[in-house]
Design brief:
With about 350 residues, the chain is of the alpha/beta class. About 45% of the residues lie in helices and about 15% in strands. The longest helix has 25 residues, at about 1-25. The chain is globular and about 60 Å long. It comes from Teichococcus coralli.
């Protein structure tokens, strides 16, 4: 009897082995290219794990700013390995125009968003609202009896010489800075010369570093190397949550609208998984996480936030409508020329 039971158990084991092996082999891989820093931390710890579990997939994360990720898409053209990309809204419009984004297939997910968050007729979806403004170390400002910043003109203040950091032109924050300096000096996206002149003559003496890495920017604030920076509301919020005495404002001339956006990459190895992950990123549950932990306002109309969290983010169409919008058509048409000029005249 014992021999018979052992034989039966062995047979069941042999029968189960291929099934277990098949389950292990069935796990798919999805490559996601998105921001580093505090955004990456939220993705890795709270957003990716439940998606992996629900879909039996391994998500590989490629951290980089929008310019980095867009360059990866261009380098892989015709042989895409990235399944999903997260970019700032400006570079995302570039990605759409270059044919890198699939049409969104989950119409319910798309229809749940505010219309402004549907980009390129549904080629990409906005995942979070924020704005570019001025961040400063409140503790250092108080210790030195410095007035808190209120205007984009504060980038020119003599008492902040070599104490400011601004992301480079490769970063959306840097583009916003250039355009705003043009606007407050009589120019615009279509007349950018006043912006370059102000950056070169008035702002440059105050800039310690043109730093696009969010991690390095955080380090410079924490070490006291810089006292003020042009940064995003979500980045500032992350440092506030970490206990840093960070002040942040939309300057009186206006904060610049900044939307993070995502798309499933055309020609990627796992298009169905990519589409699922895009829908996952704009779900009310995930957007609520990013609102609390990263400081981005929800683009999904069904996202519910506590009053405490809602008071710290862009929440609802009324608040979004008050932000300054950029002319991305003009910016993207001239960005290569602006980049060369920035490297030649500003960040030398």
């Amino acid at each position: 009897m014992r021999k018979a039971l052992l034989a039966a158990a062995s047979l069941l084991g042999l029968m189960a082995a291929p099934q277990l092996a098949g389950t292990a082999l069935a796990q798919q891989r999805l490559v996601v290219a998105a921001y580093g820093g505090s955004y990456e931390k939220v993705m890795r710890e709270q957003v990716i794990p439940p998606f992996e579990k629900a879909n039996n997939v391994q998500v590989d994360y490629l951290a980089g700013n929008s310019t980095d990720s867009l360059a990866k898409l261009q380098a892989q053209k015709g042989n895409q390995q990235i399944g999903v990309v997260v970019l700032d809204d400006g570079p995302m419009y570039q990605a759409i125009s270059l044919g890198f984004c699939q049409q969104v297939t989950d119409k319910a997910a798309q229809d749940a968003l505010y219309p402004i968050a549907v980009l390129g007729g549904g080629k990409a979806l906005g995942t979070g609202f924020g704005y570019t403004g001025l961040a400063w170390n409140e503790k250092l400002f108080k210790e030195r009896n410095l007035p808190a910043p209120t205007s984009w003109k504060d980038l020119e203040r003599a008492d902040l010489e070599q104490r400011i950091s601004i992301p480079g032109i490769d970063n959306t924050y840097g583009v916003h800075t250039l355009v705003m300096m043009a606007r407050i000096n009589g120019g615009s996206e279509k007349n950018i010369d006043p912006g370059f002149r102000a950056m070169r003559q008035k702002v440059n003496p105050n800039v310690l570093a043109y730093e696009s890495s969010p991690g390095k920017m955080s380090e410079m604030f924490q070490s006291g190397e810089i006292w003020m920076a042009v940064w995003g509301s979500s980045r500032a919020r992350a440092m506030q949550l970490a206990g840093f005495p960070m002040g942040f404002i939309a300057p009186k001339e206006g904060g610049v609208a900044l939307m993070t956006a995502t798309c499933a990459v055309e020609g990627s190895p796992s298009p169905d998984l990519a589409q699922k992950f895009v829908a996952h990123l704009v779900s009310p549950e995930v957007e609520a996480i990013f609102s609390k932990e990263y400081g981005s306002g929800p683009t999904n109309k069904n996202t519910k936030l506590s009053p405490e969290v809602a008071s710290t983010v862009i929440y609802g169409e009324d608040q979004v409508s008050k932000l300054i919008a950029m002319d991305w058509e003009t910016i993207n048409a001239n960005r290569m020329d602006w980049t060369r000029r920035w490297q030649r005249e500003v960040e030398r």
